[in-house]
Amino acid sequence: MRIAVEGCCHGELDKIYETLQHLETREQTQIDLLICCGDFQAVRNYDDLTCLACPDKYKQLNTFWKYYSGAATAPYLTVFIGGNHEASNYLAELPFGGWVAPKIYFLGNAGIVNFGGVRIGGLTGIFNQRHYRMGHFEVPPYTESSMRSAYHVRELDVWRLMQLRQPLDVFLSHDWPSRIADHGNKAQLCRYKKFLAKEIMDGSLGSPPAAQLLKELQPAYWFSAHMHVKFPAVVPHAAPHASRASDQPACTHFLALDKCLPGRGFLQVVDFPEASGPKELCYDKEWLAVLRSTHRLMRMQQRQPPLPGHDLPFWATPSKGARRSVPPEQTYVWQQPEDSQGLLDAAANLKAEWQSGGGQRLGPPLKDLDAIEDAFKGRGSCTIPHNFQPTAPCHDPQGGQRRGSMPKSLPRNPQTLALLAMLGLPYNLDPPTDGRGFGNNHPAPAQANPEEIDLDAVSNGDAAAVNPEEIDLDGLEEPPDAGAAEANPEEIDLDGLDEPLDAGAAETNPEEIDLGEVDEDESPSDKLTDPRVF
């Protein structure tokens, strides 16, 4: 089995598919699956563009709408995670994953699926400590602040992934695990991306939760994007995963990939010679059991119920005089909100269930595994149903360009309803009616606590200035509608996709597999510009 991995998509599905078809013809091979590492931009219409966090000059419909409408069919089964430039309103309809178009599957806020015997996991978004311990409270109509916090990783999703006990073959994240540069050719990375040098040296580059998942889950492969550069590394594991066979190497092969542009390292094909299962997308039993056992903890509000093993609830506020640079668990004090007893009781009951065996990473409770097994038997299969349904009008190319309008609410996606019904779970994704701690379409409480720090308060006028994750494309290349948009797919330089690493990198990582090398032809401006400021 051959799986193609792509970095940042930025809505350029036509070009990515054409590149794969060119590669198949050139190499006389077959690609079975495409996986994308974020910034997918599943934009259906101009309204979705109002929910895309980037400057207006880069808000382009691109080509996804054709696959959503049925005007085109994806030539490859495609699986993706979200990044920090998405139509957040659409992805928010599918927090547990689902089809955004026929043959194009979103993994959800976090998710695990199986394809032909290859187990694939992923985590959507990027890390930002300010919102890490909150719930998924953001819904349309978004503010400039909530449009960005919507794509920030939440601890609940990371904690769910941490409960997995069975081995993973592939894991996807948009931003890199922290300290990953220490395991590759750091000097070469700094030559091509000079702005990263300081963060690499002080250890601030990357996501600490992703690093935690890498250490604990130890997948065979980990793929990321975000930084618009191709960078391979090999991460050794001092304490190998308990489920790993004794003859398997205790390491993870990491590869970051670029975005889809001619001459850039945005694509890698990986062989899985031992994968022999049916080439169809299937639910993962262990993951669904984790979702089922933790469903009661999911809230569409800022105040997140405490997780099992945590002494403090997530809505705790910083103690007076506490420095923000100190880890939250050392500076937060408990301030119990009104009407929170139900949340506390649910968390206490779940903690007892998960810790009954003496630990926090025992896998989901047996009763939930049995429930999933019964659900599969009732369906006759664990195959993910092809139950895509449009939930918003698609762009009409005959209607001309118009100014989009911010959506006022989120619809209940039929796929989410069907999955919850299969799991025997209630729908708990509607916003609270009182607006307490919730998003932006409800008024704030009349009287706020004067000592409480509003962690979501970012003025609309200053949002662009204080957002360090956005990507400044000025100086990188022309806007998507100029030049590159008309590029012939035959002009994309596929040479070097599978070339060996240079001698220096090979000596640094003697176990490193051949994942290709960083492109030599990046423009000087790209080497000097931080691609996170968009």
UniProtKB/TrEMBL annotation:
SMART domains to which the protein is assigned, alphabetical: DBR1
Domain of life: Eukaryota
Skewed-composition ranges (Acidic residues): 469-480, 488-501, 509-523
Taxonomic lineage: Eukaryota, Viridiplantae, Chlorophyta, core chlorophytes, Trebouxiophyceae
GO process terms (BP): mRNA splicing, via spliceosome
PANTHER family: LARIAT DEBRANCHING ENZYME (PTHR12849:SF0), RNA LARIAT DEBRANCHING ENZYME (PTHR12849)
Family: Belongs to the lariat debranching enzyme family.
Skewed-composition ranges (Basic and acidic residues): 524-534
Protein source organism: Apatococcus lobatus
GO CC, any one term: nucleus
Subcellular location: Nucleus
Needed cofactors: Mn(2+); Fe(2+); Zn(2+)
Classification via CDD domains: MPP_Dbr1_N
Residue ranges annotated for the Lariat debranching enzyme C-terminal domain, each copy included: 235-429
Protein name: Lariat debranching enzyme C-terminal domain-containing protein
Listed GO MF terms: metal ion binding; RNA lariat debranching enzyme activity
Keywords attached to this entry: Hydrolase, Iron, Manganese, Metal-binding, mRNA processing, Nucleus, Zinc
Region of interest (Disordered), ranges: 387-412, 468-534
Principal subcellular localization: nucleus
